Amino acid sequence: MKLYKVVSLVLGTTLVAAGCGGGDSASGPAEIKFVWWGNDDRAKLTNEAVQLFQERNKDIKVTTSFQNFQTYFEKLSTEIAGGNAPDVIQMDYRYLNEYAGRNVLLDLTPYVGKQLRTADWNQGFVGSGKLNDKQVALPLAQNATTIVYDPKLFADAGVAEPKIGWSWADYKDAAGKIQAKSDNKIAGSTDFGGTEDVFETWLRQHGKKLYEDNGKLGYTKADLKAFWQLSKDFRDAKATTSAELVTTLNAGAEQTPLGKKLSASEHSYDSLFGGYDKVRPGELKLGPYPSDSKDKLGSYRKPSQLISVSSRTKNKDAAVKLVDFLLNDPDAGKILGANRGLPANLKIRDQVAQNLTGVNKAIFEYEKSVDASLGDAPPAPPKGDGAIYKLMQRKHEEVVFGKTSLDQAVEDFFSEAERVLS
Amino acid sequence: MVLAERVTPAPVRSAAEGAPPRRPTRSQGVAYLFLGPWLLGAIGLTVAPMVVSLYLSFTDYDLFNTPNWVGFDNYAKLFGDDPRYLKSVGVTLRYVVVSVPLKLVLALAVALLLNSLRGKGQAFFRSAFYAPSLLGASVGLALAWRAIFDTWIDTPDTALTTIVLLSAWQFGAPMVIFLAGLQQIPRDMLDAAAVDGAGWWRRLFSIILPMLSPVLFFNLVLETIHAFQAFTQAFIVSGGRGGPADSTLFYTLYLYERGFTEFRMGSASAMAWVLLVVIAVVTAVLFRTSRYWVFYGDER
Question: What are the tens digits of pLDDT across the range B125-140?
């Protein structure tokens, strides 16, 4: 008990100090901090939009900062723990429950439809920012899973490019031919077995899901085994990358096998296409996932990023105003374009679609081509999904390197995943 | 022994004369005044956070909300219910056992080499060999290492070796200390041995190493403690996740992951305290054994 008092004393002092620092915010301009993850490209556009917001709201001062995905979340957790929470926070679907479930995000419900305009939105999409009937975030933009590929390599090997209706067997066959054509120097595909995003898409093709509504795993050991077997089939057919290249989606495009020209096709999200195009300008295209089910593509309208307000902000109104500006202002929409994916506001989406070029055009056209097959987003994954995401990657690595048998890896995965979720 | 001679007789004398124990004098007050800034830092930035983390290790603290007391739960779970924890212990022990001797042998070898280079060359080469250590904790260096040993780092069987090599390469700090120790060894002793017909190896094992043993001991203790705490290189080289397949999952890396990406700060604090206790025990054991092999010039 005594120790607890010491701790509360220490924390209390910190809070008081923090309170003193920002105490007179009512008199001066409201200062808010807006953070996101992304690259220089995104930073340039976002800062431009923030600049415009400040010009229109002289009484609000916005400071910004950004990191890459992984660093961003490490920094964010320490900042919030240290009582330095940013006011406006770009949020990931995977982390939504981790943060909202710990009461870190402001419930925006009272603002929705008022200060936060959502009339021009797909209402199902608005709901993807809801948890337990609380609007803890709003989606910033929409993206979907995709296969990014190098059309030249497909043509050289004389195989058809990805199109709706192609099967996993077609993919394996095409990838094998591409790889053979280059004498195994360029893999036909990037190994997808360690990526939860691919597993989710594959599960949805089979009418299953990653998580049940009660937060338990939505698949069986047999499902996971079948998925890893599929990845193994690709390896056995010499149709995918070698063990050393097992990689993550969260690495920058310049570090992935496709970005390094060591693979001809790679599972990804269409919103990441800008990064790929920067590394290999004009060389790559977007295509749909293969599927063994005619009417199920597995991809869905995913919030590529969401935006939240900290529950500890001292400037709620200013923070909400910035959120609304980024989401719904036509001029902000013009600046931001499709950098984060398709704008959530449908009017702005149409406006952006009017004069598209380059990367944005490719993303819009891809989404249009699959739109009829896209499902609504599942509820945000439960707390612990971040750990399970990494677990999947790790166990798959162990299989690929021959450290563990496939069956053992499935067993290990389930016991560890269930422990994480319990 | 110089120190001991000055200190030990004092209480004997005062006890004999029956003098009262010395009261704090003004000069002591001044001493504390000068120590003040450091004391404040030590208490505020080291002791207090340590006490808090000890408390947190008995709670379910998740970084954001009020911690709840859970007793020894965190500690019990580490050993009972977590194969990854034991894996991280294994990786760290392997790293300590291989990297510390390797680094010390390299440092000693280079120090011997430099010591034989009396003259201008020594200063230059000393700086040159020390340079990698200056960049020791540098992220840039680890990134360069990552780029150079690309394939090794991406293979579970060799990833840890790469990090061991990176650490061994940064032998500058113990090397400089060895060099200073070597220069303290009286030349006449070595010359006399040479005249008596002792060869280089004989002089190394019978004179240099015994005379150098306090320095060796110092370096061994310091490097062992550092090795247990290794973090930066593994973090950068493995992209922060201890991969591939957990082959570079250092203890500290796992601790960090627990605390800051899984939000289990209570458990992470427990890990930190286990590490602290282990380091203390290992250090104590090293001190114990030192009486059998560390030779202070004044004995016998």
Answer: 888 888 877 776 677 7
Lowest mean pLDDT among A255-259, A415-419, B62-66, B208-212: B62-66
Residue ranges with strand state E in B87-160: none
Tell me if chain A has a CB within 8 Å of the CB of B201.
no
B219 is written with which tokens? 């370096």
Buried-state track B237-259, b at ≥16 Cβ within 10 A, e below 16: bbbbbbbbbbbbbbbbbbbbbbb
| A4 interfacial to chain B (CB closer than 8 Å) | yes
Q: State the nearest Cα–Cα gap between A393 and chain B, in angstroms.
A: 8
Instruction: Assess whether pLDDT exceeds 70 at residue B2.
Output: no
Beta strands in A26-161 (DSSP E): 30-37, 60-67, 88-91, 130-131, 134-135, 138-143, 145-149
Residue A376 is predicted with a pLDDT of: 84
How far lies B134's CA from each of B100, B138, B169, B224, in Å? 18, 8, 12, 19
Question: Is B263 part of the contact surface with chain A (CB cutoff 8 Å)?
Answer: yes
Chain B residue with minimum CA distance to A105: B64
Determine, for residues A419 and B265 on separate chains, whether the beta-carbon distance falls below 8 Å: no
Domain A13-141+304-372 homologous superfamily, CATH: Periplasmic binding protein-like II (3.40.190.10)
Q: What is the mean pLDDT of chain B?
A: 84
Q: What CATH number does the domain located at A145-299+384-421 have? A: 3.40.190.10
Looking at residue B297, its pLDDT comes to 66
Interface contact flag, B55 A4, Cβ < 8 Å: yes
Question: What residues in A contact B157, CB-CB < 8 Å?
Answer: 401
- Residues A204-223: tens digit of each pLDDT: 999 999 999 888 999 999 99
SS3 A211: strand
CB contact under 8 A, A244 and B240: no
Contact B167/B237 with Cβ under 8 angstroms?
A: no
Cross-chain residue pair B51–A80, CB shorter than 8 Å: no
pLDDT confidence band for B158 (50 / 70 / 90): confident
Which H or E run includes A386?
Answer: helix A385-400
The two domains A13-141+304-372 and A145-299+384-421 share their CATH topology (first three levels equal): yes
Query: Which of A102-111, A245-254, B98-107, B243-252 shows the lowest mean pLDDT across its residues?
Result: A245-254
ipTM, two decimals: 0.76
Chain A residues within an 8 Å CB radius of B156: 397-398, 401, 403
CA nearest to A387 within chain B: B262
Of B54, B65, B243, the CB nearest to A397: B243
> What are the distances in angstroms from CA A12 to CA A15, A202, A317, B60, B62?
5, 49, 26, 19, 17
- Angle (CA) A169-A171-A175 rounded to 5° is 120
Q: A74 touching B, CB under 8 A?
A: yes
Question: Hey, where are the domains in chain A?
Answer: 13-141+304-372, 145-299+384-421
Asked whether the predicted pLDDT for residue B5 surpasses 80, the reply is: no
Mean pLDDT lowest for which of A15-29, A208-222, B143-157?
A15-29
Say whether A401 and B244 touch across the interface (CB within 8 A): yes
Cβ–Cβ < 8 Å for B176, B126: yes
Listed residue (A103, A73, A82) closest to A305, CA to CA: A73
